[in-house]
Amino acid sequence: MKKWKCTVCGYIHEGDAPPQECPLCKAKADKFEEVVEEGAAVRRWKCIICGYIHEGDAPPDECPICKAGPDKFVEVDAEGNEIEGAKRPKVAPTATKPVKEQKPSLLVRAVLKLHLHPISVHMPNGILPVAVIFLAIAMFLGLQVFEVAAFYNMVFVLLTMPMVLATGYMEWKNRYKGAKTIIFLMKIFASTTVTLSLTGLVIWRFLMPDVASPDSPYRLIYFGIAAIMLGATGIAGHLGGKLVFGTRK
């Protein structure tokens, strides 16, 4: 039976012809290309943390996407499904006790199914750059109306942060098995930096309304914190995008 790969999202279809429509991204049949395998069958290993597929006789020493070790890989078939009865790779024993998997609650399942974390992170990723640009215009060009706009934009983002953090935690614990690899630790650190910086900026501006005015002695410090917040936002967004899209070639 032939295999067809969607060139848009990577979905694999088996059949004599490609499907009329991709069940994942809804791309039409002309977006599929036939998968031709040459030579001997290639073993495939799937990272159970991020979904990365590795081809070879054994899993890699480290996942190139999420940095998980070889013990987080399972052997899969051409469609990415775990091969029943396949032996997992042998790894050195650890002192970590096995954790019993619990079925996610209805709320968690809804968050994962509706992709609420990727939706909610559009707030800080999209609005905070605008807020910092407005802040720069107000400070260095003396247009204070932009400073007011920047403040209210930051207040709005701060109100959305509980949802961003809560859904992010649910994604990490359930979709990514709570993995504590470097990419997740960096993402958690960046998100914490954004939250603390944003909270500090909003409270400071509330207590001292002229802190960002052109003649304020604290304006450069205030803008510096805003720049750090923006950098951390970009890092968190980049790492999130790597986890979601890093498995695509």
- Describe the sheet with the most strands: 3 strands, antiparallel
Shape: elongated
Strand residues, percent: 5-15%
Question: What is the mean pLDDT?
Answer: 86
Helix percent reads: 40-55%
Structural class: mainly alpha
Note the topology.
Layout: E1 3-6, E2 12-14, E3 32-34, E4 44-47, E5 53-55, E6 73-76, H1 106-113, H2 116-120, H3 122-141, H4 144-175, H5 182-207, H6 219-245
Antiparallel strand pairs: 1-2, 1-3, 4-5, 4-6
Structure description:
The chain has 249 residues and is mostly helical. The protein folds into two domains: 3-76, Single Sheet (Rubrerythrin, domain 2), CATH 2.20.28.10; 106-245. The chain is 47% helix and 8% strand. The protein has a three-stranded antiparallel sheet, with no helix packed on it. The protein has a three-stranded antiparallel sheet with strand order 5-4-6, with no helix packed on it. The longest helix has 32 residues, at 144-175. The chain is elongated.
